[in-house]
Amino acid sequence: MCTTCGCGTDHVHIDGVGQPLARGSKAPLSGQETFAPAAEPVGELAIGAAAVHAHGTSAGRIVQVERDLLAANDSWAQRNRERFAAAGTLCLNLVSSPGSGKTTLLVRTVAALAPGLSVSVIEGDQQTSNDADRIRATGVPAVQVNTGKGCHLEAPMVTKALERLDLGPGGVLFVENVGNLVCPALFDLGEAHKVAILSVTEGEDKPLKYPDMFRVADLVLINKVDLLPYLDFDVDLCEANARRVNPSVEVIRVSARSGEGFDDWLAWIARRVAAQQPVPGTAGDEARP
Amino acid sequence: MAGNPAMHEMSLAESIVQIAEDTARSSGASRVSLVLLEVGKLAGVEIDALRFCFDAASRSSLVEGATLVIEQPEGSAWCLPCGGTIPLSSLADPCPNCGSHQLQVTGGTELKVRELEIH
Predict the structure, then answer these.
(1) Containing structural domain, residue A120
(2) How far, in Å, are A189, A242, A257 from residue A250 at the CA level?
(3) A126:B16 CB<8 A
(4) What global pTM score does this model have?
(5) What is the pLDDT of residues A201-211, one digit of tens each?
(6) A179: DSSP letter
(7) DSSP character for A268?
(8) Residues A49, A98: one domain?
(9) Domain harbouring B21, CATH code
(10) Which end of chain A has fewer CB atoms < 10 Å from its terminal CB, N or C?
(11) What is the ipTM of this complex?
(12) Chain A residues close to B17, C-beta within 8 Å
């Protein structure tokens, strides 16, 4: 660091005086740069205002940053992921448009799982605690996160919500994201899988309209199939569209109302819960040869 | 969603301001006059919304008034079946050579702050 002004290490010093540089070069200074004794800028490395160390002048300096905009969120997500791994908890991030029947599906799911498994829920909505109330009515613990104007959950919100939940070993944590098929695609919460829910009252082309979300999902649940006799919805076409944007995606047709397809959905969860074992503590790792 | 002012661009704009302020402070600078971003065309970001949110998020910060320069790398992918490297304008598009959707995206999802001009 510059001892004169406290500015960064990429400042060049000449005769002990830091130089604010306007630099077009992308490489960090190597210390081998040479300076022509001219007062005028030379080549890519231009010394502003001659040898005067003048902050606050119009000549700024370019610094390389190369930082991902999601880096902060991702580091929180990683922290969450480690917490889930340590507890042996399977975390599923449920994403969909508003009105796809996500909460109804979740209520039926937790009611089916809770007798045998430690189940908890984090509910994300812009306003109200209606959804968490619906989950709690089943006896499953739920934390409501209200994002206000926010259109998606971010990893630190989940970290905060986890303070209020007791993750049991071998359990499942469902995170119901804010109803939105755009923004939640970008924000990792630390989940094992994103599950996209799409209902047959929407369009078959939704996966094509919102490819970012369907591309990051590992499973698509096509909900409300009990309504199919009354609609022109082409389920096969919808599945084909989902596979167009994500060839490896799994698809299960369900009805949260009638329970159709729930055996497959619950079996999908059970397989992943079985694969999720608590990670041994650090001491145990060190004890290994 | 489209037209909803509460979009993820606001979160991204806040991240930009945070990164720029952190970098400026740790470099002893008091102002940021230019932010160079890389936002790939497949990154799912609405550029106009991002600019709008950046203006709001940078208010009363070291970044207020900074010029936002946005480079937008084109989307590209590697097609698994035919092995070709192809341009990709949408994640729903097939390989223009063989029609397959089994594509591994190799470019266009960038989302980062590349450079800052600080004072």
Answers:
(1) 71-275
(2) 21, 9, 21
(3) no
(4) 0.78
(5) 999 999 999 99
(6) S
(7) H
(8) no
(9) 3.30.2320.50
(10) C
(11) 0.85
(12) none
